[in-house]
Amino acid sequence: MNCTNCLIEKKFDVNTMNKNASLMVVGNGYLGVRAAFEENYPEQTRGLYVAGIYNKAPGDASTEIVNLPDVCGMKIEIDGQAFNLFNGQTHSYRRELNLFTGECTRSIEWENEQGKRFSFVFSRFASKVTNHLIASKVTITCMNETAELTIHTGIDGQETNHGKQHTAEKDVRITDGDIMQGLYQTIESGHEIGMATRCTATSGDQDFYAGNRQLMARYKGTLTPGITYSVEKLSAVHTTLESEQPLVDSVAMIQSLAGVSYQTLRDQSAEKWQTVWASKAITLTSENPFDQLAIHFATYHLEIMTPFHDRRMSVAAKGLTGEGYKGHVFWDTELFIAPFHLYTDADNMKRLLTYRYMHLQGAFNKAKRNGYEGALFPWESAFTGEEETPEFAAINIKTGKRQPVASAAAEHHIVADIAFATVQYYLASQDHDFMKKEGLTLLKETSRFWISRTTERNGQLVINNVIGPDEYTEYIDNNAYTNYLAYYNVQQTLHYMEKYGDTDQELIKRGNDFLEKLYLPKPNDEQIIPQDDQFLSRPCIDLSKYKQSQGSQGILLDYSRHEVNEMQILKQADLVMLFYLMPNLFSEAVVKKNLCFYEQRTIHDSSLSKAIHAIVANRCGDKEAAYRFFQEACMIDLGGNPHSSDAGIHAASLGSLWLATIFGFAGISIAGEQLAIHPDLPAAWQAVRFPLQWHREQLVITLSHDKIVVSKTSATPMTIIIAGEACELVNLIEKKIPRGQV
Ligand code: BGC
Predict the structure, then answer these.
(1) What letters, b where the CB count within 10 A reaches 16 and e where it falls short, cover 248-266?
(2) Closest Cα to atom 9, ligand 1: which residue?
(3) Tens digit of pLDDT for each residue in 575-601?
C-alpha cells in the first residue's frame, strides 16, 4: 500500500540527508525545524528558523534569516561510544513525516560493534496549537544485553548560517532546577530570542553543564533488555517580535507544561492539523498515488511556510525550511503561494497583502532612489521592506568572478504582480473594506510607478531596461509579460477608483494616457509574440543538454550570464506565465503556437516554470504534455536528485502544484466576477475533490471525467459558470458532462 499522507525515508543515506532535512521539516508558520538527525554527522545542516528573525552579518549587503540555537540535537552514548549510523550495523530503518499530524518519526534497529542490539524511536513535532512549542522524544530499548546510556541534549548556540554567527549569547542558565534557558540577541537587527527547554527522562541521573555557547543536560541510565528508556523534551521559543519578555514567556510556557506528556501535546496538535486538512485537502483518485502524495506534501508545506500570526511577515522562497535565498520574500508569494490561501481561507491572503501594504514605505524609498514615482516594491524583501537582493550571486568557478544580480535594478514586474494579486483577492473574497483602503492604495501607488516608468518612442509609451520573469534575459525593452501586467495594473486601478468614487483627477488623466499609449507586443506574421524587443533577433543554440539537467543552472557553467542573455534561452515561463494569468488575451491558436515556440527555448532552470506550463498546456488541449509537466513539477522536491532541496523546499513550486490542480486540471477561473469551472482532468485521474472558498462561502467541488458536483451548506443562491453555462447554486448542483465536452 502506498501511503499518500506520509513522506517516507526507507534508508539512512548521508547523500540525501540535507535534502530530507528540508522536506521533512516540522513547523507551524511561526517557526520551522529542519529534520536534521538527532545525532551529528559531518555536513549535516541543522536549522531552527523563526519567521521575521533576520540579521545582517558584518560586510553583507542584505539580511538573512537567522539559524537559531538548536534544541533537537542529541549525543547518545552507549557504553561510552557515540551512537552514529556510520558505526555498527543498521538492521532496519524508517523515517516518516506524517503530513496529516505534523509529526516526524524515525525508527531504527541497530547493533553496535560489540553485538548489543537496540531499538530507537525518535519523534518530534512543532505544535500547531501553541506556535512557540517544539516537542521531541527519544525511546531506546535494549534488545539483548544490558548497556550504559548517556544522553546529552540542551540548547546549542553553536549553530550558524554556514559559518556566519548572527546571535550573541546574553543570558544562559538553569532555572527551577531543571529548565535550561537561553537569551540570545541578533547582532545587527537587535531582536531578542528567549528559549527554554526541559527534558523528562524515565529514570537515571541528570546533571547540567555549560560549554562554549551550549547549555546541556546529561542523562545517565542503564539499559536493561526489554525495558524502554525515554527522554521527552519540550522547548519554547519567543522573540521580541511578539513578546516584551521573550525569555520569561518561554520559561513560563515550559513551567506551565510540567507533567504534560509528549503524547498529549502531540494529540492536541494532530487534532488541530485535522481541521486544516478538513478545510484544505485536495483528494485525488489517480492511477498514480504519487500525485496525491505530491499534492498533500505541497499542502502541508503551504501551511507550515505561512506566518499566519503576524502581518509584518510574508512567505520566504524556501519557507522556514532552509537558508536558500536568505529567507527572502519574492513575487513567489503573491502569484504562486497566495492563491492557495485565497481559495481556502481568504483572510490568510489578506495577511500577505497587508505585508506589502505595511511595507509601502520601502517601496516608496526604492522608487524615489531610482527616480520614479509611487511604489517600486523590492525584488527581494525581508522584515524591513527595503530592497534585500544581494548585489552578487555565486562565483562563476571558471572565471572566478562573482555574477552580478540584476533583479533589484530591473525585475520590476513584481510591482504589477502585487497589483494583480490584489485584484484577485478582491474578486474572490469581495472584501470591500480592504479593497477600498489598502487595496486601492496598493493599486494607485503601483500605477504611479508604472506611469513614471515609461518613456516615449514614436508617440507610444515603452518600458525599457527590464527583466521579465525569465531571468536569463536581462535588461531588455518591452517585455511582453511586464507591459501587459503593467497595463492591467493601471486599468484595474482606474476601475476601482471609479467604483469607490476616488476622484484623483491627475492620476485618472495620466492613467488613461498610459492605457492609450502603452505599447503592447502583438503576434507577428508567424503568430509569435516577441518576448521583448530584442529576443527574436538573437541566435538559438541546442539546449537539449541543459534541458536534461533542468533546475541545475548548468548552462551558467558553460556560458557567462552575459552570453546567455544574448541567446534565445529562457530560464522559466515568461510569456507562458502571461498566458496563465490572462487566459483570454490571445486566441487559443496563438497561445498554442507560442507555448510550443517558447517551451523549446526554455530550460526550466527555475522551479516556478513546470507547473505553469502544465496549466497552459492543459488549456490548449495538450493533456499529455500537461500531465507530464505536472509530474515533473512534483519531482522538483520529491524527485531523485539528492541535493535539489538541500537549502530548503521550493515554496513557489509547491504552490504551483496546487495551482496546476485547481486552475489547470480542475479548470477553476474567474469569469467576469463569477466563479467558473471547466475541468479537464488527466487521463490518469478518475476524480478530484476539494474545498473552495468563494465570496466567503465554503464550497465543495467534486469532479470526474463526466460529472461536476458543487455543494455548499448555506442557502444563499450564487451563480457559477459550469462548462460555459451559467448555473444557479443553492446547496447542490450536479451536472453530467457528455464525453468530449470538457
Ligand atoms: C526565479 C525567480 C524566483 C526566485 C525565488 C529564481 O530562480 O528565477 O522567478 O522568484 O528564484 O524562488
Answers:
(1) ebbbebbeebeeeebeebb
(2) 469
(3) 999 999 999 999 999 999 999 999 999
